[in-house]
Amino acid sequence: MKDANNPGPFKLDIEADAQAGLKDLFLQSLRDEISSKDELSVLALSSADERVNAIYVYDLDIPEELTSLEAVIAQDDLPMLDLNEKSLSSIKALLIEVGNDIGQLVLYKTMAPVNIFGRSSFFLRKHESRLERLNDEFLRVSAGFQMLRINDALLVLNLEALEHNFGFHDVIKKEAALGIDAIVSAALVTNPDVLRELVDDVKYARRLTKIAKASPVLKAGISGESIVRFCKTFPNLVGRIRFNEEGSKVMLDTKVSKDLFIKVLMDDLLTSELTKFHYASVAKDAVVPNVKKAD
Question: How far is CA 26 from CA 14, 29, 55, 150, in A?
Answer without folding.
Answer: 15, 5, 17, 15
